[in-house]
Each structure stands twice: as structure tokens, then as C-alpha cells.
HAD-superfamily hydrolase, subfamily IA, variant 3
Amino acid sequence: MSQGVRGVVFDLDGLLVESEEYWEQARREFVSRYGGTWGDDAQQAVMGANTRQWSRYIREAFDIPLTEEEIAAAVIARMQELYHDHLPLLPGAIPAVRALADRYPLAVASSSPPVLIRFVLAEMGVAECFQSVTSSDEVAHGKPAPDVYHLACERLGVAPEQAVAFEDSTAGIAAALAAGLRVIAVPNRSYPPDPDVLRRADLTLPSLEEFDPAVLEQW
């Protein structure tokens, strides 16, 4: 293991699986039941938010006559159905995880609830590659706040400056940078990150297929 990099933290949605479109579909379907229309502004408003934050947003923005817990449960259940029907793996995701698992302790730092994170990792066949799983639901503030990355590094037993994050979104890149990690950005094509935030990443790749683990050895 290199002296510089002691751990690696992966985002999930939009990085390992192309799930942002699933989240949008699940929320759009839910809101439409109550006469609402889920648009681009709503999708951007909840990017990076944890479950408490996005369920509160839905209840308040669309005047849903349910508790935040009931809203979250309905949307998460729909996500599990979508994942069960088809897991939208992104190119290079599994090889990148397996290559790095041979060299470093790995963690996940995701805005998804823990049940969905573990479900996806199991379906990918890489659950055993990760030392820890951290959800924004476990911290006070979701991305772009650094909370989830601080907790992920703590669980790995590494200082943030000794860790590298893989991220795809504006909120995710900003969160990892704010926590003090180096960042490898793999921009989401459907929901591209803000160019000013993307420029702050240490490395930008068009796809995980282009990732060479030797880069981290050089760091």
C-alpha cells in the first residue's frame, strides 16, 4: 500500500449504478399520485440529500398528506422494485472495485439509505470488497456537507487526507473536497456536475473503464 493513500471511498448512485434516473422515476410516480409534477427543479433540489431531507422536501413542496417516514418508505420500496427488475450497472464499476479492494480498504459514502446500498452491493457481487458502508441517513447533513465522508473515513480508520473519493455529482464532489479527500470525478452524463466544482477534482475520467489503479500508487 502506498504511503499517501490509505483508503478509498466510493459513491454509489450515478457512479457504480446509473440510479439517478430510477430515483427520479420513483419520486415522479409517487408525487403524481397526489396531483404533483416532478420536474428538473425538484430533481436538482434533492440531489445529494439524505432521506430525511428529500422526504421533507417532497412533503412540503407537493403538500403530501403523509408523514415523511411514509413518503420515504414508499419511494424506497419502489426503488427496490426497480433494482430487482434491472440493476443499471455503469461500465467499469465492478472491475474498479475489485482492483482497488486488492490494494486498499474500501468504503461507500452514499446518499441512499443503508438498505439500498447493501442491496446494490450484494446484487453487484462486491459486498465483501467493502469494509464499511456509510449512508447520509446516519449523519446530520447530506451532501454537499462533508459529514458522510468524515464518518466513512472514521470507519475505515484513515484520515481524510489519506483517502480518495470517487464521485460523479456536484454535491458529491463538493462533499468529498470539503471533508479533505482527494477526488476522482467521473461525471454523470445525465446529471453533469457544475463545471466550477468539477475543476476542483484531482482527476476527471470519462468512465470507470478508464481508471488505472496505478494512479493512486503515484499519489
User: Anything to note?
Assistant: DSSP finds ten helices and six strands in the chain. The domain at 20-85 is CATH 1.10.150 (DNA polymerase; domain 1).
